[in-house]
Design goal:
- It contains eight helices and 14 strands.
- It is an alpha+beta fold.
- Helix 4 packs across helix 7 and helix 5 crosses helix 6.
- It is elongated and about 75 Å long.
- The two termini are 22 Å apart.
- The N terminus is likely disordered.
């Protein structure tokens, strides 16, 4: 498919593999439908794009999309042409939307780039920085009161991630937050620089069933990023949230970690309120970008 008279878009071939990985280093392994844009004079790969194998289930079913156009060739219609072909393939697979594979800073150029391609925010994520020395004195007495009041089921227990049923953890995350099953499984199995910590990530069981978890990965010697604080809806805002945070804190402190950076989604009112009470700082706001597929 021609873009003006200077470019063509075609499926990636074996000879494009190195250029494709260089343009999409963080996403290439997760993409199965792959396209490249090639300049005619001089002949060179100037853009790459693709769809993920897996699909998000909400708010609309759809795959992740990765696109990169090198700087000199931007704003010439290449990105929009790539999106059009990706959209057609996604429709063929029964999708209702396209999602950016990575969340973007709400104040950054990446967000503006996705907006120019017809994407808009469908979910806002905030990162909150909190000192761990505030957790134990605030949460431990609260949890003890909840125990005495009989709020915590006798069958409830919290275990480290390495002892948990990882498939059940993936399913909980997908059901409550969505996400990419393949990427979650990789991180849960300790693969990649952003792999979840098997020692201070925590999983909540009730009657032996996975009903909550805190998943975190270490970003420095003293900082851990809490990527997901997941609970079944009936357990949010109560003892389960307090207990998970406390046990994850204790595990992190034993490793010398001093600060948590929490990731919270739009519906995580309890964690955002918790941040305010502990006078934590909101250090970053990110957005998941989506483009619904028109059916008419």
């Amino acid at each position: 498919m021609s873009v003006g008279c200077a470019f063509s878009i075609r499926p990636e071939c074996r000879d494009d593999a190195k250029a494709y990985r260089m343009l999409l280093p963080g996403a290439a392994a997760a993409l199965d439908y792959r396209l490249v844009a090639e300049a005619e004079k001089p002949a060179q790969i100037v853009a790459a794009a693709g769809l993920t194998r897996t699909q998000r289930s909400k708010p609309l079913v759809g795959p992740g999309v990765a696109i990169h156009v090198i700087e000199p060739y931007r704003r010439q219609g290449i990105g929009k042409s790539l999106v059009a072909q990706l959209e057609a393939e996604a429709m063929r697979r029964g999708a209702g939307a396209l999602y950016a594979t990575q969340k973007v800073d709400v104040n950054g150029e990446e967000m503006r780039g996705w907006a120019r391609l017809g994407f808009s925010p469908c979910e806002t994520v905030e990162h909150h920085e909190l000192p761990l020395d505030q957790f134990e004195p605030r949460l431990a007495p609260l949890l003890e009161r909840m125990r005495k009041q009989g709020r915590i089921p006798d069958s409830a227990e919290i275990i480290p991630l390495y002892a948990a049923d990882l498939e059940a953890v993936v399913q909980l995350h997908l059901t409550q937050l969505g996400g990419d099953a393949e990427a979650l499984t990789r991180r849960l199995h300790g693969e990649g620089p952003d792999a979840f910590s098997a020692t201070h990530s925590r999983v909540l069981l009730v009657d032996g069933r996975v009903v909550g978890c805190i998943l975190a990965h270490r970003t420095s010697r003293v900082v851990s990023h809490v990527d997901a604080n997941v609970l079944e809806p009936a357990l949010r805002g109560g003892w389960a949230n307090v207990w998970l945070k406390l046990e994850s804190t204790r595990g992190a402190l034993s490793l010398g970690i001093k600060t948590f950076v929490f990731t919270t989604f739009d519906h995580y009112a309890d964690t955002r309120s918790f941040t305010e009470k502990l006078r934590g700082a909101t250090v970053r706001r990110m957005a998941l970008m989506v483009r619904p597929i028109a059916t008419t």
